[in-house]
Amino acid sequence: MARFASLIDSLGNTPLVGLPALSPSPEVRLWAKLDDHNPTGSVKDRAAFFMIQAAEAEGRLERGDTIMEPTSGNTGISLAMIARQRGYQMICVMPENTSIERRQLLELYGARIISSPAEGGSNEAVAVAKKLAAENPDWVMLYQYGNPANARAHYETTGPEILADLPTITHFVGGLGTAGTLMGVGRFLREKVPGVAIVAAEPRYGELVYGLRNIDEGFIPELYDASVLTTRFSVGPDDAIRRTRELIDREGIFAGISTGAILHAALGVAEREAAAGHRADIALIVCDGGWKYLSTGAYDGTVTEAAEALDGQLWA
Amino acid sequence: MAIEVRIPTILRTHTGGDKTVQGSGDTLSTLIDDLDSRHSGIKGRLISDDGSLHRFVNVYVNDEDVRFTGALETPLKDGDSVTVLPAVAGGSAAGKR
Q1: Considering only alpha carbons, which residue of chain B is nearest residue A295?
Q2: Can you give the C-alpha Rg of chain B in angstroms?
Q3: Confidence class for position A72, pLDDT limits 50, 70, 90
């Protein structure tokens, strides 16, 4: 069935495609869950829809209300689209000087943007959003970093979809941002698949992003539970860009840079399993397409040039 | 044993501003002791009073988070690369200075 009552109803049930050219052997196979095939083109549509639906069910959201969220990325775009469809106002709190495509998309979907200082990155956006929420009690902050509906979206949709398409799964590799995808898919798979490995790929940014004044200003998403994970890799921009390009060159998939980071971790896992002589079916998430990142320079010139262009940006 | 350690901006007061320093040790714990002998005070920034890694400090050996590889007892060998980073919220914006 490929007919839906509306765009939002077409959420999820994204394709899982093999990556035969990148897989090390017929016994160790990589599979990509194409979550760019979602209504606004990213995996975040799942969390956004579930968070709004939960807030409506709890009576926290009524037509005409204002949603406010610290995000300038995919979550903001997803929330803005659904908010417009359902008659809510949308405010995104995001660091100033954000990539032009994301700002344009948010504005097209009717979102209002409140800037937070570039120094401190998302930490600062979260702090500003929490302050605004306290000052404006009628605004509804869904707060993706701590909202259980974010992880539940993946527990109820992404996880079951992957298992249905790949019953022989041995590893799941996802990106670590809010932790929603990894916690939801991870908990679901651990209940159903004995011994499954849940692997986090965490983007490693330039120094500006880690520019805390004090280590106690550090931030761990409330959703994060290390016991769900098997291991966690930090992936720098060089590796993420190199893998993003390999995904285009070898498999024809035009993905965003965070997907390159996830692929890098997945290939590391695949090589370990192949070297150990194990069979493995490794599923990874394609978070979004590359369209929103063309202006960052990630797709131009050499990998080194592209990595330099990304320095100081939150590219995932 | 030479192990390269990448130091985040916030801890460079202990390394005279150096972004990377060399250290030695066969576990992360002994490496941190070795670093502290030349970069006084750095151990106190990385390790909490209870003796575990500071909640908001992440350490990676060859890009893998040590909390999943034995924490402070993670084994090290010559040529390993160690990265120290503060835990921050990522994944939602781009900010250029």
Answers
A1: B94
A2: 13
A3: low
- Residue A309 — pLDDT band, cuts 50, 70, 90? confident
Q: Is A192 a catalytic residue?
A: no
Owning domain of residue B48: 3-86
A8-37+158-304 has CATH 3.40.50.1100 classification: yes
CB atoms within 10 A of CB A50: 25
Report ipTM for this prediction: 0.92
Q: Are B28 and B64 in contact (CB under 8 A)?
A: no
The token pair that represents A26 in the structure block: 């017929």
**Regarding predicted confidence, which is higher, A117 or B58?**
B58
Look up the pTM and report it: 0.95
Pick the CATH number of A44-141 from 3.30.460.10, 3.40.50.1100, 1.10.3720.10, 1.10.238.10: 3.40.50.1100
Per CB-CB distance under 8 Å, the chain B contacts of A102 are 94
Residue pointed to by tokens 């390993």: B80
